[in-house]
Design goal:
Elements: E1 10-12, E2 30-38, E3 42-50, E4 59-70, H1 77-83, E5 85-86, E6 90-94, H2 98-112, E7 126-130, H3 145-154, E8 172-173, E9 176-177, E10 180-187, E11 191-201, H4 208-211, E12 226-234, H5 240-256, E13 265-279, H6 297-319, E14 324-325, E15 331-332, E16 346-348
Parallel strand pairs: 6-7, 12-13
Antiparallel strand pairs: 1-16, 2-3, 3-6, 4-5, 4-13, 8-9, 10-11, 11-12, 14-15
Length: 349
């Protein structure tokens, strides 16, 4: 039975975790997965993150994206950047499945909103991706729109599953099996910051950046490329500008976790706040939201927490995942826990 980082006696940083040390520690946030493991060559899936359990199109949340390295095929990010709102579940999958997963997200929003996509009133579905083609036959195009709908329907406030589930079913990290990982922190005033990642970056030769010691050479995924999707959620009252700044701080945690954002690797950090909901249509022309001051102690702690949760979520994605075989007879081993003993970013709990 694989264990999470804290179950192995290690911690990251100094801030206290939430109850489950997961994105779903943020009140109201829901996570769901659909995992596709079929025969010898299908190892993929879909992960859905819902900032709240209501109608996201009708009640949007403020959000932002920071692109660390843009070698990716994500959907919906230009409108997110322009308007600063999420109006759909955040959907994660494999690179060649962005299209059908986007369609599933569209169908979800149209089912909920009879007036949407009439005249000029369109919908914006956000989809992120990692390429899982070492273990999964991505060319089979196995993920279909209904899998996105199933992941959304499966989303719950208990959705803290990690490892080889959902969008992380076929992913690897440092040449070991990885997948979905999570973490959370509680900052001053009882505010929570949670994180979910799908880790898929780094070669075995890069492991020294995480553990401090070189790893033995071994056959595995190609040594270049990879990706990571990082989703940060918080109940702190932050503006879309502050959320963009928060997302950028995930970069520091990713660096602690051993990434240097190689040329062919896509690293994206998305951030949202559940503290404010913005109606799709309103008669009142003004908004009156109150946000944390940039120089507040809570904002400083949230920046610190963003690095901590990103780093720990990557480690949980590795620690939780079992070895797996897949396409073409490829096999990826689980991370040996003894490699963590010398990791400079970790301390014994």
């Amino acid at each position: 039975m694989r264990k999470r980082l804290r179950e192995l006696g290690y911690t990251v940083g100094r801030l206290p975790p939430g109850r489950r040390c997961s994105l779903v520690d943020v009140p109201g946030v829901r996570v769901g997965h659909v995992t596709l493991i079929e025969g010898e060559s299908v190892r993929t899936g879909v992960t859905a993150v819902l900032p709240h359990g209501g109608n996201l199109y009708a009640e949007k949340v403020l959000g932002a994206c920071h692109v660390i390295n843009g070698y990716g095929k994500a959907a919906g990010l230009t409108q997110l950047q322009e308007l600063g709102t999420f109006e759909s579940p955040i959907l994660l999958t494999n690179t060649l499945a962005v299209g059908p997963v986007w369609e599933g997200g569209v169908r979800h929003l149209l089912d909920q909103n009879a007036g949407a996509a009439r005249d000029r009133d369109t919908v914006n579905v956000v989809v992120g991706e990692c390429f899982d083609g070492w273990l999964n036959d991505a060319r089979a195009l196995r993920v279909r729109p209904e899998h996105a709908l199933e992941a959304i329907a499966a989303a719950s406030e208990d959705g803290a599953a990690e490892g080889s589930v959902g969008a992380g079913t076929g992913t690897t990290c440092f040449g070991f099996k990885a997948g979905v990982g999570g973490a959370s922190r509680v900052v001053g005033g009882g505010l929570t910051l949670g994180c979910l990642v799908v880790s898929n970056f780094g070669a075995r030769r890069d492991l020294h950046m995480l553990t401090g010691t070189p790893a033995e050479r071994a056959p595995g995924p190609p040594s270049e490329g990879g990706s990571i999707m990082i989703v940060l959620g918080t109940d702190a009252p932050l503006s879309e500008r502050q959320l963009r700044r928060l997302a950028a701080r995930a970069t520091f945690g990713l660096g602690r976790a051993g990434s240097f954002a190689s040329n062919g690797s896509g690293e994206y950090a998305l951030a949202f706040s559940t503290a404010t909901r913005l109606a799709h249509r309103a008669d009142e022309p003004f908004t009156d939201f109150r946000f944390l001051r940039d120089d507040s102690p809570q904002m400083r702690q949230l920046f610190e927490a963003a690095g901590e949760v990103t780093s720990e979520a990557v480690l949980n994605s590795l620690c939780s995942a079992d070895a797996m075989g897949g396409r073409g007879g490829h096999r990826v081993e689980a991370l040996p826990y003894e490699l963590l003993a010398g990791a400079p970013a970790l301390r014994a709990s």
